[in-house]
Design goal:
Length: 385
């Protein structure tokens, strides 16, 4: 199972564009089928089954980590700042114990095989966005992270595609790195955090309108992953700033992207939400009621908020078949993608069992969730042999 780059604008000589011998990943998208939400051709794995793609899995870059060690980055991490002493101790032990899974590709592949995952769409460890750094350093760190992700994909093109990072603290630098990620490195999108140094992604001070527009123009995905809740003073105990805070951070960010009009202005944006979409994905009717009942809830957007929410994509990390079933019913099987949160302790360790236990899920829907949607969105194609 090998992949080949299909970006006709790509000039990277390391990529195979149908005329060389170096295997690479990617595939043209069936535009009409995608617009209609219809299934595209099923990409098969070595055993003849539909390809199983994990959209939510992280890689920690040791080189980037070393570059900022002297700046004490833990103190800038919401998941550290809003944790009690016991949670900090448990987290430190987890990072030591799981270092091989986070940074060793050989260990990762063994775990993928055990879990039945054919391809991972690897993204940076969420804290390695480094928005808190000075913009020039942030851009350098992003390049370090992205170059290594591209190296991993080049070395194991049959097992990985990648989502990079960009320095959102500077819109111009973020745009430049986005272009490099996609056009030079062949990455399939970017991971971003739901806020930048306490500012919403729609905050005019960040000036990210052009960034969102360019992501949509390039046809790549955004994977929006939190690093705890930004105002977690009440979430210090019981690991609440992850257990409650991560889905809450996603909920607040998505609400701003909807109500501030980002999704209305950029209808082609493809944003994937982790952890089952946070709370909003499962309590959408309240915001629709507010939109009908109050003029201050419809100052920007024209349609019901749930209209824009249905444009998002969601991973399967719900830990409950009934909840996953409800998500499929509400947003459609075409908007749900297999995710694990590998290799952290809040991960779904048996995603195929979870998907397989969803009541009354058709075979077609199951194949789309397990990998078909990711194949389409990330332009993955099995290379003919």
């Amino acid at each position: 199972m090998m992949f080949t780059c299909q970006d006709q604008a790509c000039t990277d000589p390391r990529h195979n564009h149908g005329h060389g011998h170096e295997p690479r990943r990617g595939a043209p998208r069936a535009a009409a089928a995608a617009r209609a939400g219809a299934p595209t051709t099923v990409v098969r794995n070595r055993k003849g089954g539909s390809l199983r793609v994990d959209i939510h899995c992280h890689y920690l870059n040791p080189e980037a980590q070393a570059k900022v060690a002297h700046l004490n980055p833990a103190e800038r991490d919401y998941s550290y700042a809003y944790s009690n002493a016991l949670s900090r101790e448990v987290n430190a032990k987890q990072m030591r114990d799981r270092a091989p899974q986070l940074s060793s590709i050989e260990t990762r592949i063994r775990d993928m095989d055990r879990m039945g995952i054919d391809v991972q769409a690897i993204s940076p460890a969420p804290a390695q966005t480094y928005y808190w750094t000075e913009p020039g350093l942030g851009a350098d760190l992003a390049r370090t992270v992205n170059d290594r992700l591209a190296e991993i994909v080049a070395a194991w093109p049959d097992r990985f595609v990648a989502l990079g990072t960009v320095p959102l603290q500077d819109a111009g630098l973020a745009l430049a790195e986005l272009e490099r990620c996609v056009k030079t490195l062949g990455l399939r999108g970017v991971e971003i955090n739901p806020s930048v140094n306490g500012m919403e992604l729609s905050d005019p001070r960040l000036n990210l309108e052009r960034f969102f527009a360019r992501v949509a123009e390039l046809g790549v995905v955004i994977f929006m992953h939190p690093v705890g809740f930004t105002h977690g003073e009440r979430l210090m105990n019981h690991y609440f700033n992850n257990v409650i805070g991560n889905p809450l951070e996603t909920t607040v960010a998505v609400s701003h992207l909807i109500f501030d009009g980002v999704m209305e202005r950029h209808p082609k944006l493809k944003i994937i939400l982790p952890h089952g979409g946070g709370y909003l994905a499962h309590y959408w009717a309240r915001m629709d009621h507010a939109h009908r009942a109050r003029p201050d809830c419809r100052t920007v957007i024209k349609k019901a908020p749930s209209h824009y929410l249905k444009k998002f994509y969601f991973d399967t990390i719900t830990f409950d078949p009934a909840m996953l079933r409800q998500m499929v019913d509400q947003y459609g099987a075409g908007h749900v993608l297999l995710g694990t949160d590998y290799p952290y302790d809040m991960a779904e360790v048996d995603p195929l069992r979870l998907i397989g236990s969803v009541p009354k899920l058709t075979r077609e829907a199951k194949e789309r969730i397990q990998g078909g949607n990711a194949v389409r969105m990330l332009k993955i194609k099995r290379r003919a042999r």
